[in-house]
Amino acid sequence: MNNAIARTINLQKTYSPGKHNEVKALKGVSTEFNSGEFIGVIGPSGSGKSTFMHLLGTLDSPTSGDVEIGGKSLTKLSDNERADLRAKELGFIFQGFNLLSTLTAIENVMLAGDYAGLSPKTTCERAESLLKEVGLDERFDHTPAELSGGEQQRVAIARSLMNDGRLILADEPTGELDTKNSETIVQLLKDLVKRKQKTIVMVTHNENLTRFCDRVIKIVDGRLAS
Amino acid sequence: MRIIIRNLFRRKLRTVLTVGGIVIGVFALTVMGAMSEKLSLLVKGGEEYYGTKVIVVDGQSSAFYGGAPMTIDKRPDIEKVKGVTYVTPEVSLMLDEETTMSFGMPAMIVSFDAGANQYESFEINVATGRMLTDEDRGKVLLGSDIADTMKTNVGQMIKLRKQDFEVVGIMEKTLTAPDNSAVVSLYDAQQFVHATLPDAFRENFPAEKIVSDFAVYLDDIEQGEAVAERINAEVEGVKAYGPSFFSDQIGQSLAIFNLIILSGALIALIVGGFSIMNTLTFSVIERTREIGIKKAVGARSGRILREFLLEAAVIGVIGGIVGIGFGALMAWGINESSRESGLLLFQLTPRLLAAVFIFSIVISVLAGFIPARRASKLNPVEALRYE
C-alpha cells in the first residue's frame, strides 16, 4: 500500500531474554497504518498492546523485526534521531494524561513545539489555537491540578498536535475518564482524523469505543488475532 | 529559564539549604581570597621594590628588614663596591609605638631620600599636594590608606609618635606597603629612632648617624646577587641581600600561607558542591516520570542533560551572588573596624570576585553533572512507568 505512513514488520519484543523471567511480549506483529485512518488496538490485559505502542512510538527497541515510519527504518536510527522523529512526526496521548504538573496548560502544549524546533512565536500562536480547538479557551494558564480529567486529556491532545506530525499514538486515552468524557474525547480524536488527516492509533480496553474507529486490530498473546 | 527557576523552587526548603551550602563556600572563598589578595599585593609590591636592588643591614641583624639600627658610616664603603650605582640610607620604624606584632603590613614611618628617586623603578606618585624634599622638617607625605585612617588631608597637622607634622602630600594608591606608610625626611626619621634608643646608647650614637638599612641601586640588576656577595666580602659588619632574597623567602612563605587559607575555603565550596549533587539526585528520582514525558514528546538526551545542568548553574549563580555579597560585606566590615589601627586585612579585587563567581558556577555545574547525566540516560518507557 502506497498510502501507509507506518508499518511494523514481524515485530518481536522479549523482556529479559535468556533469563528465568523471560517474557515474550510480542511474537511477530506485521501491520500497517494508512494516512487519515483511525485505528483501534484492542486485546486483553498483558496481550502486548502497550509494548506494541512503545515500539511504534520509538520509545523502545524491538528484539527483532522493524518499525518503519514515513519509510524510515527505526532500527537504523540513533537515539537522537529517534527523539527528533518523536518531536517532529509523532504525537502521544497517555492514559494518565502525563502533563507536567509545574507547567500551565499552554506551557505543556508549547513544550512540544519547543522540542520540535518551532520558533517561539509559532509555538505560542499554535498552542493557543490548538487549546481553543479542543475547547480550553479559558484554561490557558491553569495547571493540571486545576483541570478536570477530561480537560487534562484535551491538553494532552493539543500537545500531541503541536508538531503537526502525521501519526498520533493514544495509549488508553480514556482509561481514567468516565463514560461521557470518554466518548467526548474519542469523538474529538475522530474529528481530528477527518479535519487534519492525521493517523491515530488508539489502544483501548473499552470495545464500545471502537465504533468510532475506521479499523480495529486485536492483539492476543503477542500476536495479531484475525 | 522561568521553568528552571520554578523547578528549583518546587522544594523550597531543600533548594534554599542547597544554595546555603554554596553560599557558605563562596563566602569563605571570598573572605579568604580577599585576605590572600591583600597579602599577594603586598608581596608583589615587595618583589617590585626589592627585586631591583641589594639591601644591606647590620651584620648582627637576623632580620631582612626592621633589624637593629646601624651607622651611616658604612655608606662610603658600600659605594666603593664594583657594580654599585647609588646607596640610599633608609630609616624605618613602626608608626604605633605599642605594636609588637601584626598580621599583614603595619603602618610605618619611613625616611625619604630625593637622591634615590632617579634610580627607583617602583614608581610612587603624589595624588594631592607635593613630594617631600630632603630639607623638609616636620612635614610628612602620607600613603593613601594611612591618610584615610587618620582622616586628614593636605595642609592639616597630624601627630606621628606624639610629634606634630604637617601633611604636605598624599600618595596615589599602590595597593602595597607605601599605602600604609608615612614618609618623612631622613633627618626626622633618624630623630624618631634616636628617641627610642636606650639612654646609654643615645649619647654615643648621634641621630644623624642612624640608619635601619641601605638600599643599594645597581649598574646592572642582573648582577644583583654578585654585588651582594661582593658587599658581604668587602664591607665589614654588614649583611647584604640580593634581589632574589625577598621573593625566595617572603614570597614563598606567603605562597604556602595563601595555599593553606585558600584550601580551607575551597573545601567548604566543594562540600557545597556535594549538597548540589545530593539535591539534584533526589530531584532526578522525583522527576523520573516527567523526564519520561519529555523524552516521549521529543526531548533529546542532551536537552535533558542541559536542563539539569542549568538548574545546577542557577544554584551556583544565586549561591555565588549571595556568598560574594556576604563575603564582601564581612571583608569591608573588618577592614572598617580595624582601619583606626591602620591594619587593612582584606583586598577585594575585581579579579577575585570574578574568579570566585565563575568558580562557584563551575563547581555547581560539575556537581550537577552526574545526576544530570543519569536523568538524560533514563529509558523513556521505564521513566513513564515510574510511580
From TrEMBL, chain A:
One of its GO terms (molecular function) is transmembrane transporter activity. Residues 6-225 form the ABC transporter domain. GO terms for cellular component: membrane protein complex; plasma membrane. SMART domains: AAA (SM00382). Keywords: ATP-binding, Nucleotide-binding, Transport. This is ABC transporter domain-containing protein. It comes from Candidatus Kerfeldbacteria bacterium RIFCSPLOWO2_01_FULL_48_11.
From TrEMBL, chain B:
Residues 265-380 form the ABC3 transporter permease C-terminal domain. GO terms for cellular component: plasma membrane. The chain crosses the membrane at residues 12-35, 254-285, 308-332, 352-370. GO terms for molecular function: transmembrane transporter activity. Residues 15-233 form the MacB-like periplasmic core domain. InterPro entries: ABC3_permease_C, MacB_PCD, Macrolide_Exporter_MacB. It is a multi-pass membrane protein. The keyword Transmembrane applies. Its main location: membrane. Keywords: Cell membrane, Membrane, Transmembrane, Transmembrane helix. It is found in: Cell membrane. This is ABC transporter permease. It comes from Candidatus Kerfeldbacteria bacterium RIFCSPLOWO2_01_FULL_48_11.
